[in-house]
Structure formats: structure tokens, C-alpha cells
């Protein structure tokens, strides 16, 4: 079923209800998504049901859904559309759990289909990321249209923790590094003792003065997460039941430590593929060429991310392959230069580009970044 709304406790109920019923859900945000995109998603998914909250009823009424809409706010025992008997149906590991739409290079969004086994594996890994306390309150900034929302919600509830929509009141926070930076600059946020970040490059120093820190990495196509690190400098090691290969882009061989290549990810989290996009699925999801166990049929997802193994056996993120340029005949990865600049003392951010066949770098000093945050707050 399609789930429409914005982040709220009602939407959390909607997610749990759809999953408990044995169905899969597709999140939609009427604020972030134009109506044309929502209509495309409805057609692409062949939806049988739309679940929303009351404040979006007027918007949904314009989508011509007949009687297929349910509002979470108005469900009660007098509604004859439902049975409130205890559900006995349980989902199989291979059943669809959700489909997340990501941007496509052609302008047509891609629906990534994930079954239950991948997210369950990642949620179980939540226990290894941080040491939680019974009084912990979890806050997360990810909109529910992104898959980290699933990890944040179900991981928190699975640990028996409380969740709050007010991230400033929380002791355990799951968010992007940029939001974490702004949050920690506010000296009034003294409750934060554990910080889990992901979704974008992590700046140096973000782990300072944090009791527990975790830098998480993973594309939607591998069920939320694939690796974790306790340092902003790396994306770390593979999570349990996840395989990571650094592959040479020219001959498909495995790269030794220190040599950069494309990250291919295998294991239980690899998604089913892209909905109604068989050619793209076949291009990005291939049989695992490094699997030596003939009894196990595995696939890998080709991420397009450039990484390398360091001497500690952790992965270092270097950027995207499609950001690679040539200058004076040399292949240069702009993300790698940017990462090196951001390691320098006094630099909080950097952007590198090619201008008139020359490399040009723009940097923001840590002092300037601090002044911007102060002015905005």
C-alpha cells in the first residue's frame, strides 16, 4: 500500500500496520513530491490501497482514488472496513517489505524493491552500533520517504527505546552529518551522548566530545546500510551478513589494499532490483563473481562509489566514479582531492572542480562556518 504524509506518530502507526498486515509499503510525501511524481508512483506500483493522515485528505481527494483511501487518524472499532482481530499472518524473509523511489539519471524515478531479510539484518545490527540505556530517547531527522527512517524507527522500537519528534530533547540521535554539525553547535543541546550519522560525507571532528559515535554508509539498493565506522575518516567495515568488494573498473579484478576501485556490495541486504526496470536491474545487479560457494546463489550491487581498503581493513570513501575527470591526460577523482582538503586543519568544507583545464578548489574555513551557524541561529 502507498503511505502518504509527513513524519509523525500517525505515519509510524501506518508503517507498522502495513508491515504487520503482510503488505509492503511505498512512502510518498505530498510536500516534497509534485503531483505528477505521485501519480507516476501510483501507476508504477499498481497500488491497491493508499493510507494517509487526515490533513492530507483534501489533497488525496484530487487523485481520483475511489474508495481505496484510509486515514490513520480516523480508524476506530466502528469502522466496518477493518477487522481488529489479532493478525496471525507472518511475512516470509523473501516477501516484499517496502519500495523506496530514488532519483533517476533520465529524470524518471526508480523504485527500489526490498524484502524483509535485508532490513531485519540491519535492524538487528543496531545492537552493535551503540550501547543503549533504558532512559535513552531516540530522535531521527530522516524523512519517512528515505530508508534510514525504517532503521531508525524499527531499530529504536526493537530495543524498547522511546522516540521523539523533537530531536533537541534526545540522547541518541540518528541524522545526517550536516544536521549533526548544526545541532552540536547549539550549546543548549547537552543531552546527546550517542550519535549515528549517515547519508552524506562526514566531516572531520564530528565525533569530538561524543560518548558514542558511528558513521554509517549504505545505498538504498542494499537495504539501508552496508558498513559502519567509529570514525568520520572511514565508512568502516561490512556489517554482519554483508559482503564488500573493491573492484578494478577496467578488468573487474579485486583491488589490493590502498588501491581504489568501485565498491560492489553483496550479502543478504541486496535488494530485488528496480520496479518495472529490468534492463537497469540487470546492469546494476549481477551474479556475485567472487562467490566460491556454489551452493549459495548471491548477487552484488555495483554502487558506482570509489573506495579503497586502508591498512586497518576499513573502507575509505573517495567519491563517485561519475565525478572523475581528466586533466592533462591524467584521470583525477575530484572527491578524493576534496576529502584530502577537508582533512586539513582549519578547513570545514571544500568543493573541487575543473575550470579551463585546471583544477580549482573552494574551501570554507572552520571559523567562517562557525560564524554562519551563529548568524543563522
TrEMBL record:
Cite the AMP-dependent synthetase/ligase domain residue spans from the record: 3-274
User: Which domain of life does the protein's organism represent?
Assistant: Eukaryota
Cellular component annotations (GO), alphabetically ordered = cytoplasm
| InterPro entries registered for this protein in UniProt | AMP-bd_C_sf (IPR045851), AMP-binding_CS (IPR020845), AMP-dep_synth/lig_dom (IPR000873), ANL_N_sf (IPR042099)
Tell me which Pfam families the record gives: AMP-binding
What's this protein's name? AMP-dependent synthetase/ligase domain-containing protein
Q: Which GO terms describe its molecular function?
A: phosphopantetheine binding
Name any Gene Ontology BP term: secondary metabolite biosynthetic process
Amino acid at each position: 500500500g502507498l503511505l502518504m504524509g509527513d513524519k509523525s506518530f500517525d505515519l509510524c502507526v501506518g508503517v507498522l500496520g502495513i508491515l504487520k498486515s503482510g503488505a509492503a509499503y511505498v512512502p510518498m510525501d505530498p510536500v516534497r513530491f509534485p503531483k505528477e511524481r505521485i501519480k507516476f508512483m501510483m501507476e508504477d506500483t499498481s497500488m491497491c490501497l493508499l493510507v494517509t493522515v487526515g490533513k492530507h485528505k483534501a489533497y488525496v481527494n484530487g487523485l481520483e482514488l475511489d474508495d481505496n483511501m484510509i486515514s490513520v487518524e480516523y480508524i476506530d472499532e466502528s469502522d466496518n472496513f477493518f477487522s481488529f482481530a489479532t493478525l496471525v499472518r507472518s511475512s516470509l524473509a523473501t516477501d516484499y517489505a517496502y519500495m523506496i523511489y530514488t532519483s533517476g539519471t533520465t529524470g524518471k524515478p526508480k523504485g527500489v524493491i526490498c524484502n524483509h531479510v535485508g532490513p531485519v539484518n540491519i535492524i538487528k545490527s543496531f545492537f552493535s552500533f551503540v550501547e543503549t540505556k533504558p532512559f535513552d530517547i531516540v530522535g531521527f531527522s530522516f524523512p519517512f520517504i528515505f530508508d534510514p527512517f525504517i532503521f531508525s524507527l524499527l531499530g529504536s522500537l526493537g530495543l524498547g527505546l522511546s522516540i521523539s519528534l523533537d530531536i533537541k530533547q534526545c540522547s541518541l540521535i540518528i541524522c545526517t552529518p550536516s544536521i549533526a554539525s548544526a545541532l552540536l553547535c547549539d550549546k543548549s543541546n547537552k543531552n546527546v551522548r550517542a550519535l549515528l550519522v549517515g547519508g552524506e560525507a562526514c566531516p572531520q571532528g564530528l565525533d569530538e566530545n561524543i560518548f558514542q559515535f558511528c558513521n554509517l554508509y549504505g545505498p538504498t539498493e542494499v537495504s539501508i546500510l552496508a558498513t559502519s565506522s567509529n570514525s568520520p575518516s572511514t565508512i568502516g567495515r561490512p556489517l554482519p551478513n554483508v559482503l564488500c568488494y573493491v573492484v578494478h573498473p577496467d578488468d573487474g579484478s579485486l583491488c589490493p589494499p590502498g588501491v581504489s576501485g568501485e565498491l560492489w556490495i553483496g550479502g543478504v541486504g541486496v535488494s530485488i532490483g528496480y520496479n518495472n526496470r529490468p534492463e537497469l536491474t540487470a546492469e546494476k545487479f549481477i551474479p556475485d563473481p567472487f562467490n566460491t560457494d556454489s551452493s549459495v546463489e548471491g548477487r552484488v550491487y555495483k554502487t558506482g562509489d570509489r573506495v579503497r581498503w586502508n591498512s586497518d581493513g576499513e573502507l575509505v570513501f573517495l567519491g563517485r566514479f561519475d565525478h572523475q575527470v581528466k586533466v592533462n591526460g591524467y584521470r583525477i577523482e575530484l572527491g578524493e582531492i576534496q576529502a584530502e582538503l577537508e582533512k586539513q586543519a582549519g578547513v570545514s568544507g571544500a568543493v573541487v572542480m575543473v575550470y579551463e583545464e585546471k583544477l580549482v578548489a573552494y574551501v570554507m574555513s572552520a571559523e567562517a562556518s562557525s560564524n554562519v551557524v551563529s548568524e543563522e541561529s
